Amino acid sequence: MALERGRIIGYDNDRMTFEFTMTDATGKLVDCKISSAAMDQLAGVRGTTPSEREAQFLDLRDEVEHIASDLFDEALPKPVRMIRIFYHHIRSRPNEIPMAQDHARVAGGDEGLDPGG
Are 8 and 17 in contact (CB under 8 A)? Predict the structure, then answer.
């Protein structure tokens, strides 16, 4: 069950994450976050400033949402209310655009998933 695009919440300076939402097939809201390090890794850059994060997210939005959707699918049938994407979920593959590292498997079980929200 793929997630559908939701809305952009924005960059959280304290947590150093970019927050956005997606919806599942039943219309339930799924909160999502991607760390600054993960976005920089996905973009192939370092040191993006907080003021540049929204533009960076918009550039990477399709890829980030694909990773979030894959992580969500891997958690099923458990209910998931939050997806967290970290640096270790991202890697560059030869001849491909950067995508989630082992995004079909969340390291440590449910590390990127928060069923309680």
Answer: no
